[in-house]
Structures
1.
Amino acid sequence: METGEGAGGPGGPDGPGLRFGCASFNQDSTSLALGTKTGYKLFSLTMVEKLDCIHESETPDVYIVERLFSSSLVVVVSAATPQRMNIYHFKKGTEICNYSYPNNILAVKLNRQRLVVCLEESIYIHNIKDMKLLKTLLNTPSNPSGLCALSINHSNSFLAYPGSATIGEIIVYDANNLNPVTMIPAHDSPVAALTFNASATKLASASERGTVIRVFSIPEGLRLFEFRRGMKRYVTISSLSFSPDGQFLCASSNTETVHIFKLEQLGPSGGDEAATWTAYMGKMFSAASSYLPAQVSGMMSQDRAFATVHLLSSGQRNVCTLAMIQKLPRLLVATANGHLFIYNVDPLDGGECMLAYKHRLFGDDDDQDEITESEGSEVTGPAQACPSYAATAALPASGPVTATLTGYSEDGGAKKGEVIPEHEFAAGPVCLDDENEFPPINWCRDGTGGGQGRRS
């Protein structure tokens, strides 16, 4: 699943010991992208004990890097030009196009239909096949972290973003049909984390307090599950991610604990409901709730974590995801000091997850502050060497972009844009996906509509 609250921002990496500016898993968690002060790296996640660096670029101060599934398309934003988004074909080492926006870019999300750019008070929705601006959502509630989520299911391409800067409202927007779907009153305090499941039928959210995680049905917006991460303290949720089958949800924070919750698949009513102890107790609690104070009944309806991981340090930004690697369920956690932890997850009994391997995401020379594992748990190795920059790097952007957003309208479209020329790399459409996951797509060299495009 696509996951990735960045570990930095437009100002570049922040905080002592921070090893990278951002980290994101791609939409199906088969690769990891890191943005650093000196460039960005892409890693393949097909094996537990081997971490292959498949690309490295020297673009400075990268704080957003997103890869489209297993394709050659990668989106990069640098703190040097925080209002510009560069799109590269990294295997060809070529920039496809770049777009500039009126303010700093805070997040970029993409699936096979849409590319979404989030600014603090506006959101731009592009058609990913030609980068035409389809819709601009203006005057959105102040969103300084760029929090948003885009479903990876392109046939149900839903976008979620905060509907308020003061309370936990969530707007769900249909990015295919370009119309709002629902508003979910999810939390009392502002929303801090969002993620869709793979089929775009569920949306998970957490608030700034970080104590409760809720799961809602999409598109209806009905509350399905409520999980309590903890009551002792407020925390900052770093990331949320569903497992590929939607049965589990992981949550990481600025504490040392990563939680995995299990979503019991209960039928809508009566005989269809699973005959489990959890289902029975759920009925009992539901019946009793009308006789109990609100706080008590609320507590009784909330489930504890199915499985947990205890990291060796707290206070660091991290990003987590659940993935199938070598046919087994794994929890992956990339931490801000430059490590990737891979844990085995027991899908039947849960409990404390066992560390399978720890990878260093940087070379030995960079890794002076390596954390110390407890005795008996040291399972570590360096990432495989990256290809040389000369062999793989994308071409630099063609200079600063001074004009921004000429000719865009709220309804989007190329009202004043140029006709998109034929792609320079082939007579026909260019296939950017090496695993044939979706049909070949046409890409632009010049922008139209929303961002001011530049020739590469």
2.
Amino acid sequence: MFISNNACLVPNSFWLTGIPGLESLHIWLSIPFSSMYLVAVVGNVTILAVIKMERSLHQPMYFFLCMLAVIDLVLSTSTMPKLLAIFWFGARNIDLDACLTQMFFIHCFATVESGIFLAMAFDRYVAICDPLHHTSVLTHAVVGRLGLAALLRGVLYIGPLPLMIRLRLPLYRTQIIAHSYCEHMAVVTMACGDTTVNNFYGMGIGFLVLVLDSLAITVSYVMIFKAVMGLGTPEARLKTLGTCSSHICAILVFYIPIAVSSLTHRFGHDVPPHIHILLANFYLLIPPILNPVVYAVRTKQIRERFLHILKAESQPK
């Protein structure tokens, strides 16, 4: 590490604080966090296994659900092992390149997840508003291309973030990141140089992903509701809306924690730092935990197949 004349550092690594202000409780905090991470991993792996084993679930909606499960595994695994290492072993040091890699994976796959929700909204729109052409429009190849497009969009949007930090911001006031993981703004705010470009780019990506994606999803559901209201009987309306309920719940589970965390970070200046950090961790943990639960509870085929597997395993051999 080199210290320049203006007391700015050129660090090879950073120091993550974990949950600032709650250091004495880290070992106790590890219990709920490790439990939630375990539930997230088991739940999403179970969803992947059930859909793989049950051929009747090889449909567009369930393929998108598999993509969500993989994304949720990547998101939770990008942060939780390091957080638990901080809690259990005090392993706060993180290499600069590892920090930027973690930043890329977190923000990239959060962007990809938003894109998958948008693709799922399109799937529900076609299934309800043009059901006769659903299978011809949403073929396996089209579903794969939509997933690839969401992944490429995430890479293209987020790829410049760590690159701009690496190339434009070599000097830092401190090595201590007041966070439990390498979040973009937490790193940028420590920099000594001009961070205007980084700030505006980060805000622009946030607008493109969260605002535009949520608007597009809202428009698709407005059109869906119009089509549903045109159905003849209340029973038909409820049955049709029931096919969208899991997707709507998953969207709320994804966007509400992000919105709360972002608003608290931007405007909650009186909110204690540990609340900021806890909210930031929850928005990466809550969707991976709740998505499998929502789809297992709300989707009859997944629920029945899962119960069938459990019964088969419990029978004596």
3.
Amino acid sequence: MERENWTMVTEIILTGIPTTRALGSLLFLIFLSAYLVTVFGNGLIITLIFVDYRLQSPMYFFLSNLSFSEILTTTCAVPKMLAGFLSMRSSLSFGECFSQSYFYFLSGCTELILFAVMSYDRYVAICSPLQYPVIMNSSLCVRLVILSWVGGFFLILPSTVLKARLPYCGPNVIDHFFCDSAPLLHLACADIRIIELLDFLSSLVLLISSLSLTLVSYVYIISTILKIPSGQGQRKAFATCASHFTVVSMGYGISIFVYVRPSQKSSLHLNKILFILSSVITPLLNPFIFSLRNETMKDALKDGLAKGRNFIKQIRSK
């Protein structure tokens, strides 16, 4: 087709899951409930970390940023998915589509960097406990968090700029819940192999560097824990890493399956399933993983609930 005859895309239509209206309403209620619990649970973690003195440590500071990233991830994608369940399809402008995709992958990249940062924090805490307050001081923690967000921003910026400059001449339908990078890229009327390769390499570099630092940290952590003479000491040390290790395993596993492939045009149905895992299930489970497997977090939550009940009683008694 000649370039002058192209009709440029101005609106993107998301098909999501082809379903009946009754089933769509049921899925809407299920995913709306999951979304509200996710936002409330991660928001509660952030609030507890900032108001409870027992949670004023680097580990929980990083956790609060991870929870914020989870809220951003699910908020970027789930509302449009919910709209699709009610209307059988969801549409958004070309600019909205790119914005949704950019902020979704920004939060995803930031999470992977935060995983590595949190692994390093656990390494210092267990392998050098006496030097931990000196090494993991507040200034370093702030710089590491800034590095995580700025690193994610610049990592995906080049490919995003290149994608935005491509001609998109239709069709304008994406077989997905949100503006995922791969199906959006395949709407372009141009050679996309260079950008696909750039996406693949940037994802590979991020995953390998983050995963390598995480693995090295946990090798040292496990070797140090095994040298602890008492079984109780070993269990206590493992308990401080169990929640983080569980979340990291899920995060890396899903990321490897979805994004580190040279071409992602095939297996889009698999991507939908993994997308639900990464943007709905994982953010939903993380508050429960960190709260139920962390005694300090559970104590802070119990005290927070007790203070809340007392506050309500005082209001009613007036």
